[in-house]
Amino acid sequence: MPDRTVQVRMTDQLRFKPGTISVKAGETVSFQVQNTGALEHEFVLEDQGMQDRHEHEMQGMNGTQSAGNNAIDVPPGQAKTLTFTFPSASGTYVYGCHVNGHYASGMRGTVTIT
């Protein structure tokens, strides 16, 4: 059972809204992710190192390939939910879309764990 729900929108301007989210250490959050555009997007929630590895894997590929349990593909006009429990220590996570060229164009956001 999540502690709370956060609404996240994906746009074809290659942005997430909101671009920053704050959570408490150990908090379980359900991210309700809505793709408001006509392009395929994904929502990958990981630390920066995993984001960098996934971006490298996706370079040169067409379409999407989710990074694992902390990732969802969201087709145009649809919504999906990802529930995640954050670590019990402060830090930073990143959410991003690694569809070819999206992450490099700035389609990412930051979760600050306090």
Give a verbal description of the structure:
By secondary structure, this protein is mainly beta. The chain has one domain (4-113): Cupredoxins -  blue copper proteins (Immunoglobulin-like, Sandwich). 10% of the residues lie in helices and 46% in strands. It is built from one helix and nine strands; from the N terminus they run E-E-E-E-E-H-E-E-E-E. It has one helix spanning 48-58; strands spanning 4-11, 15-17, 20-23, 28-35, 41-46, 71-74, 79-85, 91-96, 108-113. It has a five-stranded mixed beta sheet with strand order 3-9-8-5-6, covered by helices on one side. A hairpin with a 3-residue loop joins strand 1 (4-11) and strand 2 (15-17). The radius of gyration is 13 Å and the shape is globular.
Distance between the termini: 20 Å
Given helix and strand content, the structural type is mainly beta
Envelope shape: globular
The number of helical elements comes to 1
Total number of beta strands: 9
